[in-house]
Specification:
The structure is a single chain. The strands form four sheets. A three-stranded antiparallel β-sheet has the order 1-2-3. Strands 6-7-8 form a three-stranded antiparallel β-sheet. A three-stranded antiparallel β-sheet has the order 9-11-10. The chain is 45% helix and 18% strand. The longest helix is centred in the N-terminal third of the chain and has 26 residues. The chain folds into three domains: 146 residues, no CATH class; 124 residues, no CATH class; 103 residues, Dodecin subunit-like (2-Layer Sandwich), CATH 3.30.1660. By secondary structure, it is α+β, with helices and mostly antiparallel strands.
Amino acid sequence: MKLRCRVWAGRLLLLLVVLALASPASAAKKSNAGKPAPPRAEAPAPAPAPEVFSPADQEKLLAVRAAVVDGYGRLADLVLASQLPDNRTVGAAVGPGSDSEVALRLLLRTARMVGDPRVYSDGVAEVDVEMPFEAVAQKVAQLCGPKVTAAQALADLRAQTIDGYLRAEGRGRVPRDLAPEVIRKAAATRPEELLEMFPLGWERTTALGRVDAVRQARVRAYAAMSEAVRAIRLTPTRTIGELASSSPAADTLLDAYLRGLPVLGQPRMMPDRIVEVDMTALVRDLIRVLKDIRALAPAGGLPTEDQIDQLSINLKTERLTVTGYGMPPPDQIKPEESLPAAPGPTMPDWAAWVLEARGVARPPDDIEEKVLAARSAKARAMSDLERRVDAVRLGDGRTVRDRAAKDEVFRRDIVALLASAKTVKHEEQAGGKQWEVVVRLPLTRLWEFSRTRE
């Protein structure tokens, strides 16, 4: 009996093995034998967590962007105050608030920030912005007319360039009592898109000045749209302007259409005190008006209605958009106040000092070694400058070195202050036998952030 059970158990086990080998899964394993295993589907990477800034970090970001905006303005002031060969300033030559000044400021808006921003413990941020000098000089020569060449333009600023770049320092701080949601919005906005509400660039402009700037931008947008529409060609020999000018009634109809065009969105109050206004015209509406103008124009050489209908295809767009720019009148901008402005003790004599340090190194004949010599001269100048700053005696009787040794926040401010030193001389001397670097540092900023901690 036991033997029979074992025999049947063996047959049953054999049958199960045969069925397993004949299953689709087993067949698939055999068919894939020797082939590389398919790649395993990896779980999607988790989405990066949104960057979270503390209120202090958000305020620093806003202060830095205010400093960038201020840098744009100071760079523009530097260029507009430059003297031309005929003893006029660039600002007087291009005209205050004119199209030429707007074009120059739009170019300077592309200046880039150099190095890291310097943020102090009292909430003030400083940045350096720079622009290629030759690009600015060529633009000034173009705007000032044929009597001024690129070599003559900004000649008095050429000596202030650093490696071919014109540089300016901007300073900014967070306006007091800003709501947290305003700070969050500003921290997520590009400097060129900062709105008037923040307030950057427009806080010294009167209400009348803002209204006048918007009105000026609207007028220039209309003029730009009129110029763009009148220059469109309907036929190889005739433009829209030529068609409209053939009849006073036709010209009046086109002008009425252009003046009735809507402004696209709200005026943009840019931080460099330029208002931007967009104006748009639908091509289908323009085609309808042109057919009415054609009916008013005298016969002879008129475009056909088919040629007018082809306008949307020729222009390859459904709407025309132009931008007008405006600036407030200079007399509507209040004088700039000092930053930071806070009542306190009388400024000590040393706060008005401007320290100057000099470093010299002897360059070998090798070009690469000359670069190292220039860096060595700069390092020696900065070392001498740091030594002089450390020796300054503050209002509490301690030297900068003594306070920095015990106050970590003050020490970070000193590092930022030294980084703001300006190179005023960087050249070979004595027939190439030595390299000289001179750096300069005003001490007003040292007094400002040191007295807040006294």
